[in-house]
Amino acid sequence: MGVTKEQVESSLTSKLNPAHLEVIDTSGGCGASFTIEVVSEKFEGKRLLERHRVVNTALEEEMKQIHALSIKKALTPEQWKQQQESEKPKPAA
Amino acid sequence: SFRCSAALTPELKNTLDKVVTSHKVVLFMKGTRDFPQCGFSNTVVQILKSLNVPFETINILENELLRQGLKEYSSWPTFPQLYVEGEFFGGCDITVEAYKTGELQELLEKAMCS
């Protein structure tokens, strides 16, 4: 059985109210392995470990079946904006 | 209060307190340092080896009780789990991130000197 990408997305959406969310199923369909990027105000004032705990807690039920969860990004909206701007290609002169 | 489902008994908690402080760097992982059985565990082993610090590894695949108890002890649902000076530092993603920023090296240097 496992967990679907949609279930992971819906739990994170309802609990973290993310400004940006990307869930990638890295299991090849069996639903046991996901990579996540999430941007949420809930990370404000929290260290990386605490941010990851927030994500783990939001997925508490799903984690019983998920074998591997990789949190690639856990950013605040402000950090996300800065990162996007720095990654933006420079406009041609 | 007593919970039947609790994996983390007072005895196990006591043991874990001792294990995580038995060495400055303790890694609970899938497999051993020479034969990691999961890519995430392997990543952390390689990072620790590259930083040239002594570390102790414990194979959680060999002890289901320990595996379940640790999840509660660390409030962390997955493995590997890295402990530095008796304190939970993080899983694979956090270790990789801290390695990239130099924060891990700094912490380990401090731990080695203390």
Automatic annotation (TrEMBL), chain A:
Pfam families: BolA
SUPFAM superfamilies: BolA-like (SSF82657)
Record-linked Gene3D superfamilies: BolA-like
GO molecular function, one term: 2 iron, 2 sulfur cluster binding
Record-given protein name: Protein BOLA2
GO biological process per UniProt: intracellular iron ion homeostasis; protein maturation; response to stress
Family: Belongs to the BolA/IbaG family.
InterPro entries found in the cross-reference section: BOL2, BolA, BolA-like_sf
Higher taxonomy: Eukaryota, Viridiplantae, Streptophyta, Embryophyta, Tracheophyta
GO CC annotation: cytosol; nucleus
